[in-house]
Amino acid sequence: MLESAVFYERQVTMAERQATIASSSGLHARPAKLFVQAVQEKKIPVTIAVEGGPDLNAGSILSLMGLGASNGTVVTLKAEGEGSEQALDELVALLETDLDAVE
Question: Does residue 28 carry a catalytic annotation?
Fold first, then answer.
C-alpha cells in the first residue's frame, strides 16, 4: 500500500536586469571590488553575464575580472531568493554609476 505523499511547492523569486557599465575603466580593479562587496552584502546568489557569455558568480572578483566588461558593455544580472528584485535594482544603479569617480 502506498502512503500518500505531500509535496510542498517552493516559490522561488527569480529576478533579471540589464545594466550598462558606466565606470571609465569598466569592471576592473576598484569598480570590480566595490561591486563584489555590494553583491556579497545582499546574501543571495547573483550572477552576471555579457551577451553570449555564461552566467558567472557576481560575488567573485576573479569572475568579474575575467568578464571583460568595459565601459558601455551591457551585462545581465540574475538573482534568486527573497529580496532579489530590490537587490538587483540596487546593483544595477551601482553598475550604472562611474565607480572610478566615487571617493
Answer: yes
